[in-house]
Amino acid sequence: MKVGFIGLGRMGQAMAARLLGGGHDLVVYNRSRDKAAELEKNGAKVAGSIAEACKGREVVISMVSDDKALTDVVKEISGALDKGAIHVAMGTHGVHVLREVDAVHGKLGQKFVASPVLGRPEAAAAGQINIVPAGPADAIEKLAPLNAVMGRRTFPAGTKPEGAAAVKLGNNMLIGCAIEAMGEAFSLVRKYGVDPAAFYEVFTDGLFSAPAYKVYGNIIAKELYSQAGFTTALALKDTGLMLAAGLAANVPLPSLSVYRDRLLAAMANGDENCDWAVMARHQARAAGLDK
Amino acid sequence: MKVGFIGLGRMGQAMAARLLGGGHDLVVYNRSRDKAAELEKNGAKVAGSIAEACKGREVVISMVSDDKALTDVVKEISGALDKGAIHVAMGTHGVHVLREVDAVHGKLGQKFVASPVLGRPEAAAAGQINIVPAGPADAIEKLAPLNAVMGRRTFPAGTKPEGAAAVKLGNNMLIGCAIEAMGEAFSLVRKYGVDPAAFYEVFTDGLFSAPAYKVYGNIIAKELYSQAGFTTALALKDTGLMLAAGLAANVPLPSLSVYRDRLLAAMANGDENCDWAVMARHQARAAGLDK
Amino acid sequence: MKVGFIGLGRMGQAMAARLLGGGHDLVVYNRSRDKAAELEKNGAKVAGSIAEACKGREVVISMVSDDKALTDVVKEISGALDKGAIHVAMGTHGVHVLREVDAVHGKLGQKFVASPVLGRPEAAAAGQINIVPAGPADAIEKLAPLNAVMGRRTFPAGTKPEGAAAVKLGNNMLIGCAIEAMGEAFSLVRKYGVDPAAFYEVFTDGLFSAPAYKVYGNIIAKELYSQAGFTTALALKDTGLMLAAGLAANVPLPSLSVYRDRLLAAMANGDENCDWAVMARHQARAAGLDK
Amino acid sequence: MKVGFIGLGRMGQAMAARLLGGGHDLVVYNRSRDKAAELEKNGAKVAGSIAEACKGREVVISMVSDDKALTDVVKEISGALDKGAIHVAMGTHGVHVLREVDAVHGKLGQKFVASPVLGRPEAAAAGQINIVPAGPADAIEKLAPLNAVMGRRTFPAGTKPEGAAAVKLGNNMLIGCAIEAMGEAFSLVRKYGVDPAAFYEVFTDGLFSAPAYKVYGNIIAKELYSQAGFTTALALKDTGLMLAAGLAANVPLPSLSVYRDRLLAAMANGDENCDWAVMARHQARAAGLDK
Fold first, then answer.
1. Active-site option among D168, D191, D214, D237
2. Which domains are delineated in chain A?
3. pTM above 0.90, yes or no
């Protein structure tokens, strides 16, 4: 398929490389061109502008870092995209911006699919991410061969693009809630003289034998907060998207507020660049530990 | 080993049966004697009183339903138990009662181990429960052959009996927090038109591929609240033990409070006998769904 | 009226003095007799036992420090009180103990009124406390002349004694919520460079020109936490009664949980003997202030 | 003084009328000119554009409904205002927009003061509002004669404009927290059979004898939610400014989140146009009342 790809961060590069490997005709664009070097070597054409990366493409994928970046690129994308062509936004975006982008493309007879992904760059490189597309059914169907090479599984989330954002944000919210809950539970057992490593074994060997609990439980048990996989500051930004999604649909989210307030405590006390599991440290402090 | 076993509910029967099967010399006691019939048939001696079930035993296991029941039986147990013998409380108990029971046995030169278990009756019958003992190191060592036939794995939680309670309560708290978080996330995605079953697939296929999320996520997605595995009322009682443990050690537990308030809403609105995952229904109502 | 009075703490002494001053025939009892000296000088008879303070009295008032103390004295009171006579519990008690005490007196044909008071010892000495009686209508009516000399206003709260407890606890809960809210607001304005004293002036001069905000707002603005009017530890004990009242009636109380968790943070970090307004310090710390 | 006044809603009209009555030289502007008729009759000059209302004025007051409106007008104001002249934003605004507006004026050598007010239109008409200015000290001093005729008291909140916003938002947050707390307390006493009117009397006669509790307590006790003084929808919008202020300064605000979630429940269940005290109804529902 003729595909344009805009945004070559670590995730974007990995996903674009999968498309190349799958035999698709790929034009890529990134603001700083050096990120495209590896892909160019492997056969991708490198465009000098967003418009060039969109012209004549059946599908254009954007993988940009936040809502502002999406708003910035969508003007050029929509200006250059053919009628009937599809723009797939695969970054993590808020519901408001997706509605706006959908309206822009709709007016021009273009199709828009929001399609956030779950997984880290290593998973993307291995084609092992999960993909959650939402938008017009025919567009999602058309994307199937692309999703097949980029991901291990596709989870269609309905016909409204913002539905895909709700799924991605809901999933991330579950992670934050789990970290906060672990922080509370760890501080409780510690105050009763229990070795955190022992508690970690109990829950990860039982009902919580899943990556969210193993990865973050390990960070908390060993206090490995300085090696950030995802920082407090980024996690806080993510909660803004969740709150906005809850607001737009009138959904109270009390557990989100609990962990968001914890992130703010971490920010206020110098841990903005730590892994967001550092929430557990601030719960521990409230419990009189880890001064 | 010469073992006494007090309390033959579903869990107790299954665990006692494992001990019998493991070749131990077992005397059992239950207030209503009929619960002992099956065990008697398989070789257990049935005692007519708690004292009779304790006399001359190296280890006496109690598996009773709550703190009041433990307080009730401990007088007779301590009165009949030999000096140096071990009482193992394997029910889910609060930190206060464990301290009291520990003091009672301590004064009489008896040993006390709190050893809550994780798992359902079916797991107990198959020797697949997890066991969390805390108490004197030599006592825990002595219990090893018993734990080996009753459980699949043992997680020592230190030398203070209440540490085991903290672990069990902390683990259960993680479940409640996970259910509440799922309730919030499901209500969010539903308001954006996403099929709950699709959202369930996303998170259980990824970071949350663990029983807590699969079992309770499935109940929520399909609204199977009337088939209670663990009722709202029992879950609420459990939160009382957690709050008390937090209070005794000065540990704020904000996520616990969020889900406890949700349980109270369920209680107040007629769902006391539903599965406690019915919390999700009351979150949904707050979000304007499921009137 | 022939009145017995049990419990001569600071509040009890002040209230009993008012009854004496109002011309009532008073027999008083306190465990440590020296607290009765002043009253004896002014004409009260001092009883050597609770029973002696109850015999032949039309009304016996108990003013004891907590639920345990009430449970302890009620056995003797009920054993000595005449049929038809009234026991008025004027301390702050939980709903459970009031139900139990009510049942004890009911079986013996005695009447029971729960009648907590609002106000400090100085207000009690001046007859300026507010009184909230709940119980049988005829009993409350009979108490009118006593309440008239002890308080400035009486607020009947229905025919069930625990209703009076709910009112008192509800009122105290409002105080705790107000302190927590002020703590949050003060930390917010401080982070924007606003002098706490200036903010204090704004809200107390406007919609919050009431003692709860003036007294506690002043403590927070000036950080006068070491002069405890009511300690963190006592406030935390009070929240236990509120939680129990909410539990018994299935009422979620999320704002209570927020400030209760804050009290626990204060307890865990060495401020158990400070004024409970010290909650604001722990909110400030979570916001990166007052390390 | 030569004053320009932009934004003639109910508050703006009342405040502008006070300035006229105080003998100031007033040019007013409003998008729909008819709102200016009464002021014109009383001697104000009506400008045909914002620029006209700013030219040659020493002070220009804006009193517009929200942040978007402020952003819209500030371009024209700053374009027309003399160097050294003062723009005073007296509406309720968020900290971000105030920073932006401050920067715009700063670059042009103009002065900016944020000066939100507390009080309703009737109080404004009577010169009885409270005024909270923050900005350069000399500018605030210069405004004194204007504030003297518009308000009953001025509370300077430092030299940073956003400090004034923090004070106003902090004050409003206290109201929301008080309403939520009352909602919880009312539902508690009701479940114990206490007449809401009786509970209202208790707290408003004691520590809470202040407008916030009298006004909103009365609405809750009598369920007068349909006569909205301030709607759920507007209150929710206000919480957005508070959350943003907390975020920008890293301040966790857990009590805010509790009442904000309650507002969302009211929005989700059809009460967006009710008085925001309707929060109490949704707390009552969670407690099984008011179905």
1. D168
2. 2-158 (3.40.50.720), 165-286 (1.10.1040.10)
3. yes
